[in-house]
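Students often ask why inverse folding is considered easier than folding. One informal answer: many sequences map to the same fold, so there is more than one right answer. In these notes we will look at a single instance of the problem. The structure comes first.
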């Protein structure tokens, strides 16, 4: 099951928007105006998310008055949740220090699972060179399988005797 994203509302700061608002609603980066980006998700999670965000603004997390939840609230909740569930050796930065780090975790997992870079880049809204430059050393645990695949090709054929 897939989720489709059609706009972004990043927290950029009042000084960087034309409206004086902290957030700026815009089309997706690297996409044509009005274009959507489809990202795969677990079917049960996708259904829950769709049910949750049905509403006026399609927001996953809403503030008390129904608007965008303040970034400081999200960051505070994220720090508390990490401390509550992660052992100390995992809690140390930079592992998941920011909510945005979940994006890196997901892209790395897709790459580790052998999903072609072009597909991961499309789902992430990146170009393949950006994806490969950023995640070139993230792929883990594939070396034994790659060695087995190389060895499975067999030996080179015997060269004929040239007399």
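Output (designed amino acids):
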């Amino acid at each position: 099951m897939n989720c489709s994203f059609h706009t972004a509302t990043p927290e950029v700061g009042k000084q960087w928007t034309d409206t004086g608002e902290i957030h700026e609603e815009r089309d997706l980066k690297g996409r044509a105006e009005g274009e959507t980006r489809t990202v795969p998700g677990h079917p049960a999670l996708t259904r829950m998310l769709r049910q949750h965000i049905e509403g006026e603004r399609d927001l996953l997390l809403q503030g008390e008055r129904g608007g965008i939840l303040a970034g400081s609230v999200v960051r505070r909740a994220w720090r508390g949740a990490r401390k509550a569930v992660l052992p100390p050796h995992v809690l140390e930065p930079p592992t998941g220090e920011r909510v945005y780090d979940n994006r890196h975790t997901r892209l790395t997992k897709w790459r580790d699972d052998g999903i072609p870079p072009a597909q991961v880049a499309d789902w992430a809204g990146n170009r393949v060179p950006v994806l490969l430059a950023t995640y070139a050393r993230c792929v883990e645990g594939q070396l034994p399988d790659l060695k087995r695949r190389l060895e499975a090709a067999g030996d080179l054929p015997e060269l004929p005797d040239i007399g």
